[in-house]
Design brief:
Helix content of chain A: 25-40%
CATH topology of the largest domain in chain B: Uridine Diphospho-n-acetylenolpyruvylglucosamine Reductase, domain 3
Strand order of the largest sheet of chain A: 16-13-15-14-18-19-17
Largest sheet of chain A: 7 strands, antiparallel
Largest interface: A-B, 108 and 116 residues
Distance between the termini of chain B: 31 Å
Oligomer: heterodimer
Number of helices of chain A: 18
Number of strands of chain B: 18
Shape of chain A: globular
Strand content of chain A: 15-25%
CATH class of the largest domain in chain A: Alpha Beta
Largest sheet of chain B: 8 strands, antiparallel
């Protein structure tokens, strides 16, 4: 058996060429769709958009529109599948579904269906497939990046698919339909001291299907991981109506990890109808520390110290002066009026070690100038702190008529740098910017305050948001930590990924959805046609 | 030429080996191979490749010259490294500030990051720390047409774009050549302690571990059959190994709880003794003559599966994963084990088998038809020329 170690690439190629009888120059295999690649390269992040007031029509480079006429036969067929009580076709009722938590863009669907079972979803998708009609999956519509914005005529909502199918505590598994509400999963197993870790702030409303689409996070994902770390298997109905079971109840994959491809694909790989989730044992106890600092810099330094010490708290959340003012006015938590920033640090684990670990965390924060650090005395105090944190965005409504938030991520050590950028951006544009962070992950949520009645403020708010995201990417970070790209950040994707990267991602999507009919015009900017942002980012709680 | 690479020639996994120095060089090779329909596969020590390939690939891409740490900022707890670096080399660097990569397959000094990802290797720490798919947050690979593709990034929380990290994990070199990877790292736990208990009866050992897993958060938890445990010098009987860590007060509490479940035969190891036994357990190999397979089943079915297999085993409690081994070179036995795995809603993958029976064994289990159809589409999309390690993955993809 011949085994040659070749030192240089030149030799390697020579060796390969030797295989060619007569040494004919071989034809180069075509590069990854060069034409497509060029298109992406020429593609401006802000291409043309055709937008009407209440409806968005998007036409891609080939003149293919998202708007396809719904004929009466389709409506009849869908009605026959799901029944009269599970279909909405009246314009006034459809208005409810014209957007998700990203309210800047609106476009009501022409038809909404609410199937009850996988079989009904499959039948609906087969009917659409025969006619080549695109569709938009929708959970609870709490998404923050326009992932459920109907840029297709038919919307399929999972609200009637809300059954918990099996609970298997011995194996720490739960199997649910995709319309089950996030919090209901934990509620179903709480009595036995289990929980489902991903806890987005919308967890009282958002669905598992939506969580899977967006790969949702939440404060406690610092320690316990995001959705993708807890989904073992999914049942997906492909856009042609075929039902496919991916993954399963066991811990390893058989073949390619297609579950991992579906989670976080923002509804572009078909409809997820059911999922097998991994549950975790609740930690024995918590200590929740409220730490007050003179300014954000000190608080950020404390976060770095805690992380660097090797301690992994359940959560580390930060709020700055502006947010604190709003939150205090709304919830009367007792934040000091002088506080420049607070951290909520939650330590969890074995009860026996919690006091010592909490004391160690407080000690670390003392070296960073903490002005006050106190433990929540009881569950009620802890609940109040978390309520203040999770509803911080709602409270901001008191400060300005409108606000826009970002979801950028930076490496943890760059938090002080991104804060300086945010301050500079705020000054340059003359707009107040508040900060609520998942500080432990480096996931920032700057909130730009503005008044939409002032066109120049709107323009500055858009610019401010874009500058912050660009800085995140330049610092080695990302455009989004947990809200998803949706339509909102499609235009910024080329900041993060090369044309070849985006093409590879599109290829993956087409494995599931060759015609790109499932949630079209999302995530990957379509060369030559994607949504232009003319209004600042959403203003909804996260 | 390293010993491992000489072995490659012996096993006939590849015809020629190339050692490129950059992703760009690999891209050139890939384009050339696609043009000429020359098969190629990435390899580390080529242990996996030499098992699963029935016929050699024409070109083996060794990444031994691409073994650099690209970026490491301890306070970010992330590291970017080239795929030719071994886990052992990576951990040597990470240990200085007290961190480590928490995925721990056997022989970290022979396992490159590329092989870790491609073969989705895992070890005992999966119970508490997850596997490659949980820790891999960014990737670079050379795909078809010689495109150099990146996905993910360097931050621990990131949902921008499709998760190509997951797609490449466990793809056995069939979709492209991984050149660089970004991992989350974690602090080395304080005061690692290992509880060792022996049992004469497998059922009693499994019952005790089920109770332990239910009551106490552990770092890892194993049951080993008598020959497996004697191979690491632990006992001649069934052995339970329960690893835990923490501050002093937590250790004392956990020790008490573990002792109350496992009974009086328990031995508590700490410091180097604990680490040595853990390393032996992690590195346990059943030998070249053995047939070794990994089953993944429902965790509460693991005891039954281990018992019905009549195999020597190391079982990872809580994860539902076990490695089964027998010295009988019988392809029929693999088929029987596979049926057992299927009966517990799981599947089985053969890790190694003697050369004499390899051609009679399916190394990979078969996914359900619907999933398999998508996998075929994925393969033909990411490898239209059919040159990336063809013909040896699930369903001969």
């Amino acid at each position: 058996m011949e085994c040659i170690i070749l030192a240089s690439i030149a030799e390697a190629l020579k060796c390969l060429l030797c295989r060619e009888a007569g040494g004919a120059t071989p034809q180069a295999y075509p590069r990854r769709s060069e034409a497509e690649s060029r298109e992406f390269k020429n593609h401006s992040p802000l291409p043309e958009r055709i937008r009407q007031h209440a409806r968005v029509a998007i036409v891609d480079g080939n003149g293919k529109s998202n708007r396809v006429a719904i004929d009466a036969s389709l409506a009849r067929e869908l009605r026959a599948i799901v029944g009269d009580d599970a279909i909405v076709s009246r314009r006034s009722e459809l208005k409810v579904y014209e957007c998700d938590g990203w309210t800047i863009e609106k476009s009501a669907p022409d038809l909404l269906v609410m199937p009850r079972s996988t079989e009904e979803v499959s039948a609906v998708l087969r009917a659409l497939h025969r006619r080549g009609i695109p569709f938009v999956p929708r959970g609870a519509g709490t998404g923050l990046s326009g992932g459920a914005l109907p840029l297709a005529p038919v919307m399929i909502c999972t609200s009637k698919m809300n059954r918990i199918l099996t609970i298997d505590l011995a194996n720490r598994r739960i199997e649910v339909q995709s319309g089950v509400v996030n919090l209901h999963v934990t509620n179903a197993v709480k009595a036995n001291s289990y929980f489902y870790p991903p806890d987005p702030s919308s967890q009282m409303a958002c669905t598992i299907g939506g969580n899977i689409a967006e790969n949702s996070g939440g404060p406690h994902t610092l320690k316990y991981g995001v959705t993708t770390n807890h989904v073992l298997g999914v049942e997906v109905v492909l856009p042609d109506g075929e039902v496919v079971a991916l993954g399963g109840p066991v811990d390893e994959r058989c073949g390619y990890d297609l579950v991992g491809a579906v989670v976080g694909s923002e509804g572009t790989c078909g409809m997820v109808t059911a999922a097998t989730l991994r549950l975790m044992r609740e930690p024995e106890g918590h200590r929740t520390i409220l730490a007050t600092f003179a300014d954000v810099e000190d608080a950020t330094a404390a976060v770095s110290k805690i992380i660097a010490s090797g301690m992994i708290p359940g959560a580390i959340e930060m709020m700055d002066r502006l947010i604190l003012k709003a939150v205090e006015a709304a919830f009367h938590v007792g934040f000091s009026p002088d506080a420049g920033a607070v951290l909520i640090v939650e330590i969890d684990g074995l009860e026996v070690g919690l006091d010592e670990r909490a004391a160690a965390a407080i000690e670390l924060m003392r070296t960073c100038g903490v002005t006050e650090a106190k433990l929540a005395r009881d569950e009620a105090e802890r609940a109040l702190l978390w309520k203040a944190r999770k509803r911080a965005f709602g409270a901001v409504g008191r400060l300005a008529p409108n606000y826009a938030t970002q979801d950028g991520v930076v490496p943890r050590t760059r938090l002080p740098d991104i804060l300086r950028v945010i301050n500079a951006v705020s000054e340059r544009h003359g707009l107040a910017i508040g900060n609520v962070f998942h500080a432990g992950d480096g996931n920032i949520h700057p909130i730009v305050l503005y008044d939409e009645r002032d066109a120049d403020q709107v323009r500055r708010a858009i610019e401010a948001g874009r500058e912050i995201l660009t800085a995140c990417v330049e610092m080695g970070g990302s455009l989004t930590g947990e809200h998803g790209i949706g339509v909102e950040k499609m235009g910024e994707m080329p900041l993060l990924f090369s044309p070849d990267d985006l093409i590879a991602m599109t290829e993956l999507r087409r494995v599931f959805d060759p015609d790109e009919r499932s949630n079209p015009f999302k995530v990957i900017p379509t060369p030559g046609a994607c949504v232009e942002v003319t209004s600042p980012r959403r203003q909804v709680p996260l | 030429m390293s010993a491992a690479l000489e072995d490659v020639a012996t096993f006939g996994a590849v015809e020629k080996i190339i050692e490129p120095q950059s992703a760009e060089e690999i891209a050139t090779i890939v384009r050339k191979c696609e043009a000429d329909k020359i098969s190629l596969a990435p390899l580390g020590a080529a242990r996996t490749l030499s098992q699963i390939r029935r016929a050699p690939v024409q070109i083996g891409i060794s990444l031994k010259r691409m073994a650099r740490i690209v970026a490491y900022e301890p306070d970010d707890m992330t590291v970017v490294a080239q795929a030719g670096l071994t886990i052992g080399e990576l951990n040597a660097t990470l240990a200085t500030p007290g961190q480590r990569l928490t995925v721990d397959p056997r022989d970290p000094d022979a396992t490159t990051l590329g092989s870790l990802i491609a073969a989705a290797h895992a070890g005992p720490l999966r119970l508490s720390e997850g596997t490659v798919r949980d820790l891999l947050i960014g990737i670079q690979f050379v795909g078809h047409g010689g495109s150099i593709i990146r996905a993910g990034g360097r931050v621990v929380k990131n949902v921008a774009g499709y998760d190509l990290m997951k797609v490449m994990t466990g793809s056995f070199g069939t979709l492209g050549i991984v050149t660089e990877a970004t991992f989350k790292v974690r602090p080395i736990p304080e005061n690692y302690t290992l509880a060792v208990a022996t049992f004469t009866d497998a059922d009693a050992a499994f019952a005790a571990t089920a109770k332990l897993h239910d009551q106490i958060p552990l770092i890892h938890l194993e049951v080993m059959s008598p020959r497996a445990s004697s191979a690491i010098g632990a006992s001649e009987r069934f052995v339970v190994l329960a690893g835990f860590a923490g501050i002093r007060s937590e250790l004392a509490y956990q020790s008490d709880r573990i002792a109350s479940v496992l009974g009086s035969t328990i031995e508590m190891l700490d410091g180097d003794r604990a680490l040595e036994l853990y390393s032996s357990m992690r590195d346990l190999a059943f030998g070249d003559d053995a047939v070794t397979a990994r089953i993944a089943v429902l965790p509460n079915e693991l005891a039954r599966c281990a018992r019905e297999s009549s195999a020597e085993f190391i079982a990872h409690i809580g994860s539902g994963i076990a490695e089964l081994s027998t010295s009988t070179a019988d392809p029929g036995l693999v088929a029987r084990w596979r049926e057992i795995a299927h009966s517990a809603r799981g599947h089985l993958r053969v890790i190694s088998a003697p050369a004499s029976i390899r051609s009679e064994i399916d190394f990979f289990d078969r996914p359900n038809p619907g999933a398999f159809k998508l996998m075929q589409r994925l393969k033909s999309t990411f490898d239209p020329a059919g040159v990336f390690n063809p013909g040896c993955f699930v369903g001969a993809l």
